[in-house]
Every structure is written in C-alpha cells, then in structure tokens.
Design brief:
Helices cover about 35% and strands about 20% of the residues. The protein is of the alpha+beta class. α4 packs across α7. The protein starts with 11 loop residues before the first helix and ends with a helix.
C-alpha cells in the first residue's frame, strides 16, 4: 500500500479507510468497464448493416440472470458490512482512551489536556495510545478535521461531539477546520504533534505545573455553591453527583437519559430541560455565568467523583 499513498497513514484507521476507498474504486472501475465494454461490443457486432446472425434470438437464460443478480449483490453487501464495521469502530472509542477537550472559537482551537495544560491551534498526543477528543463550539459551527488520520467531526455550539484516533507513527500532521466559519476560516489550522510516550510525558511536565481540569472544576463547583446541594449538607434536596457520569438517570417525564457530557452541560445551562424524577426543578441556570472552558472543568470534576467513589446515586 505504500506505493499507493497519497497522504500519510499514521493510524490503523487511516490505512483501513484508504484500503476501503481503493477497493470501492477498483470494483466501480471493473463494473464500468464490463458494462460499457458489453455495450460497445453489442453496438459494433449488431450495428446496422453488419452480417451478424440475428436469426437465433435468445429468449431467456435463468443461469445468466441469476448470476448477474446474485454475484454483484454479494459483492456489494460484503462491502457494506466492511464499511459499516469501519464506521462503527470510528465512532466508538476504547474505554481507556485519553480524553482531551477541544473548544472551537472564531478563529482558533482551544485544547485542554486532563492535567490542565492548554494549547491554541496545536495538539500534542502520545503515540500508540487512543485519544478521544470531546469537542464543543463557543460561537458557530466548526469542523475538526485531521486529514492524515481520515477523520472529521462537526463541532457544534451548545452540544458535545467526539472523535478518536490512535496514531502509531510519531511525527507532525495537519489540523484544519473544514466548515466555513467566517472571515478568517482559512487560518483556523495548526499541527498535530504525535510524540513517543516518554517525550509526551516530559512535554506535559515542561508545559508547566497547572491545575488539572478536575481540580479547577472542584473550585468552581464550590464557588458557585453547587456543593451545598449536590454533595449533601445543604437545605435544598438535590440529586447526588457521586458516580453519576455514564449512568442512566430517570426523569420526571417517565423517560431516562445517559449522564454524558451533553447531559451535564444541559443540566448546568438549562436545568429545567431534563428534571430528575422525584426532584423539584429549583436549580438556577448558570448560562452566561460560566464559559465553555469552565463547563468542561465542571464536567471533568463530576467525572472524577465517579472515578473516586465508584458508586451510583
């Protein structure tokens, strides 16, 4: 496959995507050549004035008809299963993936690592480790595009989207925004630096001792007065947040919802949107009081509660 490369292939996913594309191209070319070839052959053989024998017309051949129906169908169903499996893998990161938060903003990418290290229009990741990017936008729709990794995901205001990759080859690759987002859209780009794990660990240390996202979220959680209600000891009865993340939450309308990043964000900004069953909708909205980066810190802190306690509310 190296002699067919048009772009680098630093991930297993990029190699699979290229192989799938190449296979589809070859199959499509074979189908076009076969169909057009038969058409041209018939047009030449049975052209007006030719001496072709037209007296023995074939009235039907079920073997041929079943063959040209079943064989192409089997090929294309196989391709569909292959593509569907690849699509499923592309949108289901492994559970041990390193989570890095991304905020799109005209016209820059704000990237925050779990340890609190922040980058602008640049992303450092360790080689050989799955990396999950949890992304949201502060203003308009952006699109986080890693062409060398063959992945692209829209980044939406007010919602969380995600994509993941595992880069095997250290090096520097491209990061771009592929959704027109305003006058300086073309400048919303930068490098993705894939480093050996030891170099990445040193990079985290040299970037500076910073407060982790979870620690920043804890301070913010306390400063906003959330701890008094959600961690016990307050006069207002509110759901416990210990072990909340990733679990199913019953709602007062009879439905349920998974407590993921989007649910926690909505609970902070739009608390009356999804009220927990048996609780009153008394929580105030913090929309306009916290920035998207602070929302990410709060989410990281709530995730850490589940990791520390491991219990379900």
């Amino acid at each position: 496959m190296r002699w067919l490369r048009f772009l680098p292939e630093p991930t297993a996913m990029s190699r699979q995507v290229d192989l799938l594309l190449l296979t589809w191209t070859v199959l499509a070319a074979i189908a076009v050549v076969a169909i057009v070839g038969v058409m041209l052959a018939f047009a030449i053989i049975y052209r007006k004035g030719s001496k072709a024998d037209r007296t023995h017309l074939v009235r039907g051949n079920y073997l041929i008809e079943w063959g040209w129906t079943i064989i192409p169908t089997a090929f294309f169903l196989g391709m569909f299963v292959w593509a569907a499996r690849l699509y499923y893998e592309q949108y289901n990161p492994p559970p041990n993936a390193l989570e890095i938060y991304v905020v799109g903003k005209q016209w820059m990418w704000i990237i925050e690592h779990p340890g609190g290290q922040r980058e602008l229009n640049e992303l450092h990741v360790p080689a050989g480790q799955a990396v999950k990017l949890v992304m949201t936008s502060q203003d308009v729709i952006h699109s986080f595009f890693l062409p060398d990794f063959r992945i692209k995901q829209d980044v939406l205001p007010g919602r969380f989207t995600a994509e993941w990759f595992r880069a095997d080859e250290p090096g520097t690759y491209r990061l771009e925004c592929s959704e027109f987002c305003g006058r300086n859209h073309a400048r919303m780009r930068g490098p993705v630096v894939v480093m050996p794990p030891a170099d990445y660990a040193r990079w985290l240390q040299t970037t500076g001792p910073q407060t982790s996202l979870a620690q920043g979220g804890k301070r913010l959680f306390t400063g906003l007065g959330c701890a008094g209600c959600h961690l016990g000891g307050g006069t207002v009865r509110a759901p416990s947040l210990v072990g909340l993340y990733g679990n199913r939450v019953p709602l007062d309308n009879g439905g349920t919802v998974i407590a993921d990043d989007s649910y926690i964000q909505d609970s902070i900004l739009f608390p009356k949107k999804q009220v927990v069953a048996s609780y009153k909708p008394v929580m105030p909205s913090f929309k306009g009081q916290v920035t998207p980066e602070q929302v990410l810190e709060l989410i990281a802190y709530i995730k850490s509660l589940g990791a520390q306690e491991g219990s379900t509310p």
